[in-house]
Amino acid sequence: MQRTGQECFGEAKKLIAEAVSEPDDARRAALLVMADHWVALQAARGQRPPLAVN
């Protein structure tokens, strides 16, 4: 299933939220790397992330 840019951003947002409260430094870093990958997928679909996140 191919995701839309908005769905990619939603996945990145979830990972970032999980990383914020993660006490394990290595896991936090891995979550943020995965979020970066979702943002890269979003960019590949020609969409930029919104400037403000609620």
Topology:
Elements: H1 5-20, H2 25-44
Helix pairs in contact: 1-2
Using the alpha-carbon principal axes, give the shape: elongated
Order of helices and strands: HH
Rg over C-alpha atoms, rounded to the nearest angstrom: 11 Å
Tally of strands: 0
Alpha carbon gap, first and last residue:
27 Å
Description:
It is a single chain. With 54 residues, the protein is mainly α. Helices cover 67% and strands 0% of the residues. The chain has helices spanning 5-20, 25-44. Helix 1 (5-20) runs antiparallel to helix 2 (25-44). The N and C termini lie far apart (27 Å).
Which characteristics define this entry?
2 helices, elongated, 54 residues, mainly alpha, 67% helix
Short description:
The protein has helices at 5-20, 25-44. It is mostly helical and 54 residues long.
